[in-house]
Amino acid sequence: MPHYIIHCLDKPDALPRRLEHYDAHRAYLQTATIKMLVSGPLMSDDGETMIGSCFLVEAADKAAVTAFNAADPFAKAGIWASVNIHRFNKRVDNRD
User: Which of 6, 23, 43, 92 has the smallest number of CB atoms closer than 10 Å to its CB?
Assistant: First the structure.
């Protein structure tokens, strides 16, 4: 099954809204209709401030990934300024 990267950058000053919707977002990820391989927040250079989201997923096609992302509580709350979804050709995976 193909892999996809979802790369999302937050709108400026989105952190309060992100924190407000964080629990709903995490609960949504637990019910994903696509296979979540890796996910987590993107961080600013200070290593403390969340500035976006990144996901590595496995899905039948890009349409399924797009639909999954559109239904995310963060997307519905308008937290992300940009969302890019790209097919990903995983060549190396050094996780144990």
Answer: 92
Q: Are 25 and 74 in contact (CB under 8 A)?
A: yes
Burial class of residue 70 in the structure, from the number of CB atoms within 10 Å of its CB (0-12 exposed, 13-18 middle, 19+ buried)? exposed
Q: Convert the pLDDT of each residue in 37-49 to its tens digit.
A: 999 999 999 999 9
The encoded tokens of residue 85 equal: 């979804």
Q: In terms of C-beta density within 10 A (0-12 exposed, 13-18 middle, 19 or more buried), how is residue 59 classed?
A: buried
For residue 96, name the pLDDT band (cuts at 50, 70, 90): low
| CA 65, 70, 71, 72 torsion-angle sign | positive
- In degrees, to the nearest 5, what angle opens at C-alpha 88 toward C-alphas 8 and 71? 40
